[in-house]
Amino acid sequence: MSNTQEAADQLLDVNLHENERSQREIESDVGKKSEHLCVTIGATVPTGFEQTAADEVREKLGSSCRISKDRGKIYFDIAVESLAQVHCLRSVDNLFVVVQEFKDYQFKNTKEEVLKDFEELAEKLPWSDPLKVWQINTSFKKKKTKRKKINQNSSKEKTDNGQGDESDEKDGKKKLGNSASDSHILDYYENPAIKEEVSTLVGDVLASCKDETDESLREETEPQVWKFRVTCNRAGEKHCFTSNEAARDFGGAVQDYFKWKADMTNFDVEVLLNIHDNEVIIGIALTEESLHRRNITHFGPTTLRSTLAYGMLRLCEPKPTDIIVDPMCGTGAIPIEGATEWSNCYHIAGDNNPLAVNRASNNISSLLTKNQIKEGKTSWGLPIDAVQWDICNLPLRTGSVDIIVTDMPFGKRMGSKKRNWNLYPACLQEMSRVCRPETGRAVLLTQDKKCFTKALSGLGHMWRKVHTVWVNIGGLHAAVYLLKRTSQAFVHPSEQDGGRHPR
């Protein structure tokens, strides 16, 4: 190594240590200022699983939780000292701190008057405490490491003087953001195009250290001016303005009030303007990268969100030593989430597609590697195995499985509606064979509700439907069915006449 290289490395080490010390001092200072500070946190969750998320908040944080009338959102009060624990919740996608909430906002009659009110509102809001929380939050939030690069590659983006990136929600539908990494996309399947972005969260984080050091040196010589953007999400038919217009005018007033610089892609602060009928909530985003983007590094055509996988698993209330099987695991999102949260159970990820089994195995390996790096020691592994099998002829003993949780093919991206008419009855019959009578349960996700209902009706003596959760899967109206195995012993149709003994 040359003397120049050695000197550069030493300088980098010194700068990194200086930055760490400065960061600790800042956090300590902010911490002192925010002692005994209590704030309201808002969280977006998979639609239909609001109650599940509320239960998790009460269980893990001891906080009461309110479910918003705007689907897919919950609100809860916490002391700022618990902020790190909020980021560990398994059921929430994105987090924000509430600046102010108007439960019955009185909109004026004309667009001009409404937008004028939004402009005047910016300087009246209690920004101080939420901004303190935002500063504390920056020390442990999960950052979008590829945000700038991906946004630059976006084909088109709304600018609106720097305060855009909003979506209208007329007729209950949201337009997808142009960026593949948009943290507010309500598609519960991952986009394979973001594989590179998510993979970097497990891999080479240190590669950008030098760039961050150079940037911090520039910041020391230049005055700090925060960059921001405003994102407006609007739902309701009676508004005389668009979310684009609301974000533009409100964002302009925020810029004038704080003297911040508007930046659509490389922003520090994201101000949220959530409007649902007459309810208006202003917040500051606490997540850049959605919390559902965990565990999965190898993506398939239909990779389920980890937060939705958690919700499905929680529905069946796993008990210690339960054997939990996903017979159509795809990339393994459900069993991997299960092995992470319910490590006292044994999880089996199976699929008939060798490519899917390979992806699931790679995702398990990546998670193990990530855990070893995080803990700084060799991991004992996870209670999970990946197997290739035929869903209609599982290599499992009769009555050996406690829980079955799976995402069944919709017949859209995978399989076909026509094929489902034969596949669903065969799947349910084999599931009823391997699932333990009386205590066994199954949680099954499908958008092909007509086919599933028909298949279930033919096996009513084996399965009892307990509960249905309606969810939004990438704009598709889907259902999660919680089934309970009856006490009826399984007898194969060909054995009902006394031909052979059941397996």
Automatic annotation (TrEMBL):
UniProt GO molecular function: tRNA (guanine(6)-N2)-methyltransferase activity; tRNA binding
PROSITE patterns referenced in this protein's UniProt entry, alphabetically: THUMP, UPF0020
Gene Ontology CC entries for this record: cytoplasm; tRNA methyltransferase complex
Location of the THUMP domain: 170-286
CDD domains assigned to the protein according to its UniProt record, in alphabetical order: THUMP_AdoMetMT
SUPFAM superfamilies: S-adenosyl-L-methionine-dependent methyltransferases (SSF53335), THUMP domain-like (SSF143437)
GO BP annotations listed: tRNA methylation
UniProt keywords, alphabetically: Cytoplasm, Methyltransferase, RNA-binding, S-adenosyl-L-methionine, Transferase, tRNA processing, tRNA-binding
Chain positions covered by the region annotation Disordered: 144-179
Superkingdom in the source lineage: Eukaryota
Catalysed reactions listed for this entry: guanosine(7) in tRNA + S-adenosyl-L-methionine = N(2)-methylguanosine(7) in tRNA + S-adenosyl-L-homocysteine + H(+)
Cell location: Cytoplasm
Enzyme Commission identifier(s): 2.1.1.256
UniProt cross-references to Pfam families, sorted A to Z: THUMP, UPF0020
Ranges annotated as spanning the membrane: none
Known role: Catalytic subunit of the THUMPD3-TRM112 methyltransferase complex, that specifically mediates the S-adenosyl-L-methionine-dependent N(2)-methylation of guanosine nucleotide at position 6 (m2G6) in tRNAs. This is one of the major tRNA (guanine-N(2))-methyltransferases. Also catalyzes the S-adenosyl-L-methionine-dependent N(2)-methylation of guanosine nucleotide at position 7 of tRNA(Trp).
Family in the record: Belongs to the methyltransferase superfamily.
Assembly with partners or alone: Part of the heterodimeric THUMPD3-TRM112 methyltransferase complex; this complex forms an active tRNA methyltransferase, where TRMT112 acts as an activator of the catalytic subunit THUMPD3.
Name of the protein in its database record: tRNA (guanine(6)-N(2))-methyltransferase THUMP3
Organism this protein belongs to: Nannospalax galili
